[in-house]
Automatic annotation (TrEMBL):
Record domain Glucose-1-phosphate adenylyltransferase/Bifunctional protein GlmU-like C-terminal hexapeptide: where: 283-355
Organism: Oceanobacillus zhaokaii
Source taxonomy: Bacteria, Bacillati, Bacillota, Bacilli, Bacillales
SUPFAM superfamilies tied to this protein: Nucleotide-diphospho-sugar transferases, Trimeric LpxA-like enzymes
Alphabetical UniProt keywords: ATP-binding, Carbohydrate metabolism, Glycogen biosynthesis, Glycogen metabolism, Nucleotide-binding, Nucleotidyltransferase, Transferase
Chain ranges of the Nucleotidyl transferase domain: 1-253
Domain of life per record: Bacteria
Protein name: Glucose-1-phosphate adenylyltransferase
CDD domains assigned: ADP_Glucose_PP, LbH_G1P_AT_C
GO MF term (any one): glucose-1-phosphate adenylyltransferase activity
Keyword Ligase attributed: no
């Protein structure tokens, strides 16, 4: 069950009209592609995608699930939106409520275990390993965790465990954390156990109907067998403009960039039929990702260019992200800027954002709202 209804308010203009999991990422993908591809590579064949906020673009992207081999007669991918029925149903009021409202869907498949994941994180994980540990521990729930810097631990839900990784305490954003094992929001449950807790939680008016705040603490109170699964790979919650920019820049790191080309763990997406990139005479492209359909005549440094981007002569693009269809006019300088889809930057524009500031997100509407942009320093 993939939770993909995130509004992503802290991403600003990037999520004005689309859900956070549908935000473009990494030159050719959308954020949700990483979780969907994890499911494919982990041989998960039945997937429910729970949407809510501005789902049109996300629904169109997922379609029948063909890029992820989910277009199956039995199982496959099902997009599950909130609905109103005679016996209730409304907007999802929390992560646990989203699963509760789709109990009927899960019961149709009669699973022994249910994996609950989020569609707005960047990472590569084999969920089969998580399941194997869950079975070996005869666990009621297993929660994937990652070590975070101690100085940042108070920003996360922190799990306190024994040496065997059995969870005995869960602290939501503790002031004085006892460990640095942070919940990744990835859970596997024995279904019959989870179902009972979901039904009980739904009847509590005081509950926020959330896994971290309600379901997990209730299970711990009843001394159920909860274990942590320790993940040691790359994981990023792209919840802010700064973290979104950082995650894209991380792709330029040699080790993580090679992970995208791992033939044994591919990242799948809807692809296009744009022609190969064209690098013009005198153009300079260094330490960057440049996708198909791009025409580059200027200088690109440490940047990510999506499909069908045009960068004219005399331009200098540095540490920036240009979404699909962006056109950059001649003699333009962009530094630490995120340019949204189909935006046209006028000739002679100069926008430089210092490292002390959050990268700037611009689209055509934002550009129009700027006073005198062309030829001036912003």
């Amino acid at each position: 069950m993939l939770l993909a209804g995130g509004e992503g308010k802290r991403l600003g203009a990037l999520t004005n009209n689309i859900a956070k999991p549908a935000v473009p990422f990494g030159g050719k993908y959308r954020i949700i592609d990483f979780t969907l591809s994890n499911c494919t590579n982990s041989n998960i064949q039945t997937l429910g995608v729970l949407t809510q906020y501005s789902p049109l673009e996300l629904n169109r992207h997922i379609g029948n699930g063909k890029p992820w081999d989910m277009n199956r007669g039995t199982g496959g991918v099902s997009v599950l939106s909130p609905y109103t029925a005679k016996n209730g149903g409304d907007w999802y009021s929390g992560t646990a409520d989203a699963i509760y409202q789709n109990i009927h869907f899960i019961n149709q498949h009669n699973p022994e275990y249910v994996l609950v994941i989020s569609g707005d994180h960047i990472y590569q994980m084999d969920y089969q390993r998580l399941l194997e540990q869950h079975k070996a521990n005869n666990a009621d729930a297993t929660i994937s965790v990652i070590e975070v810097p101690w100085e940042e631990a108070s920003r996360f839900g922190i799990l306190n465990t024994t040496e065997s990784l059995r969870i005995y305490e869960f602290d939501e954003k503790p002031l004085n954390p006892k460990s640095n094992l942070a919940s990744m929001g990835i859970y596997i449950f024995t279904w019959e156990t989870l179902k009972a807790y979901l039904i009980k939680d739904a009847q509590k008016k005081s509950s926020s109907h959330d896994f971290g705040k309600d379901i997990i603490p209730a299970m711990l109170d009843n001394d159920l067998r909860l274990y942590a699964y320790q993940f040691d790979g790359y994981w990023k919650d792209v919840g802010t403009i700064q973290s979104y920019w950082e995650a894209n820049m991380d792709l330029l790191d040699e080790d993580w960039g090679q992970a995208l080309n791992n033939k044994n763990w591919k990242i799948y997406t809807n692809d296009s039929n744009f022609p190969p990139q064209f690098i013009g005479e005198g153009a300079v492209v260094h330490h960057s990702l440049v996708n198909s359909g791009c025409f580059v005549y200027g200088t690109i440094e440490s940047s990510v260019l999506f499909k069908n981007v045009v960068v004219e002569r005399g331009c200098v693009i540095n540490q920036s992200i240009l979404h699909q269809g962006v056109k950059i006019g001649k003699n333009t300088t962009l530094e630490r800027v995120i340019v949204m889809e189909n935006t046209e930057i006028p000739e002679g524009t100069s926008i430089r954002i210092s490292e002390k500031e959050e990268p700037l997100v611009i689209n055509q509407e934002i550009l129009s709202g700027m006073l005198t942009l062309s030829g001036e320093e912003i």
